[in-house]
Amino acid sequence: MAARLVFLGRLEDVAGAAERAVAPGPLEAILATLDKALAVELLGDRVRIALNGRLLTDHGGVTLADGDELAFLPPVSGG
Amino acid sequence: MAEIVLRESAFDPAAEMDAFIGRHAQAGGVVSFLGQVRGDGGVEALELKHYPPMTQPGMADLAVTIERRWPLEGLLLLHRVGLMVPGDPIVLVAAAARHRRDAFAAADFAMDHLKGESWFWKREKTAAGWRWIEPRAQDHADLARW
């Protein structure tokens, strides 16, 4: 039973890995288990989040189920 | 109709353009833009990361927007991901249309949105090590043109 957090861009360096398996549950509870510096970065104003490939408008009320993938997307720098 | 391609390894822009033109031989005009990894600032390597669940779908959405806005006969959005060195092709956009202005505008719009809105993250390696590239104010200004 696991959900997955995915860290894009520089967040991968902050997290020390591109992704991490976490126990399913409310996002707030999951973030509370992370290193505080990482949690602060993940909740930054400019970081978008996507659940199973779909952008969410805000972090509030997100609960991860088994198999869910939540991605943290910092500002892009493409092209 | 649009062709959306993410490439993990080097591509040959001339070969891609030959193929694209061949597929759209009836178009009145074809406009293309090729982006290459810049060799200034002591850059030794560049890595482009993407997020598979969103990057290519996002490019497909961009193509839909472009094709609604301009009457095109063909559209190619080809983007590298992975590790590159200066001089490597990184992005190729081509638009085929009956009239040149539509092709110019579509290619210009595509590039501004690929750079400013698509799900790519870039880091550069110099003698000082790897560094993530932050978006520039110019990228936002480029998007605001549209």
Task: Write a structural description.
The complex is a heterodimer of chains A (79) and B (146). In chain A, 24% of the residues lie in helices and 30% in strands. With 79 residues, chain A is α+β, with helices and mostly antiparallel strands. In chain A, a hairpin with a 2-residue loop joins β4 and β5. In chain B, α2 runs antiparallel to α3. Classes of the chains: A alpha+beta (79), B alpha+beta (146). At the A-B interface, α1 and β7 of A face α3 and β7 of B.
Quick recap:
The complex is a heterodimer of chains A (79) and B (146). With 79 residues, chain A is of the alpha+beta class.
Number of strands of chain A: 7
Low-confidence segments of chain B = none
Integer-rounded radius of gyration of chain A? 12 Å
The largest sheet of chain A, given as strand count, sense and whether it forms a barrel, is: 5 strands, mixed
What Rg of chain B, in angstroms, do the CA atoms define? 15 Å
Approximately how much beta-strand content do the residues of chain B carry? 25-35%
How far from one another are the termini of chain B? 23 Å
Give the helix/strand class of chain A: alpha+beta
Strand order within the widest sheet of chain A?
Answer: 2-1-7-4-5
Strand content range of chain A: 25-35%
User: Which segments of chain A are poorly predicted (pLDDT under 50) over 5 or more consecutive residues?
Assistant: none
Q: Say which CATH homologous superfamily of chain B is assigned.
A: Molybdopterin biosynthesis MoaE subunit
List the helices and strands and how they pair.
The complex is a heterodimer of chains A (79) and B (146).
Chain A: E1 3-7, H1 10-15, E2 19-22, E3 25-26, H2 27-32, H3 36-42, E4 48-51, E5 54-55, E6 63-64, E7 69-73
Parallel strand pairs in A: 1-7
Antiparallel strand pairs in A: 1-2, 3-6, 4-5, 4-7
Chain B: E1 3-7, H1 13-23, E2 29-36, E3 45-50, H2 55-69, E4 72-80, E5 82-84, E6 89-97, H3 100-117, E7 120-126, E8 129-132, H4 137-144
Parallel strand pairs in B: 1-4
Antiparallel strand pairs in B: 2-6, 3-5, 3-7, 4-6, 7-8
Helix pairs in contact in B: 2-3, 3-4
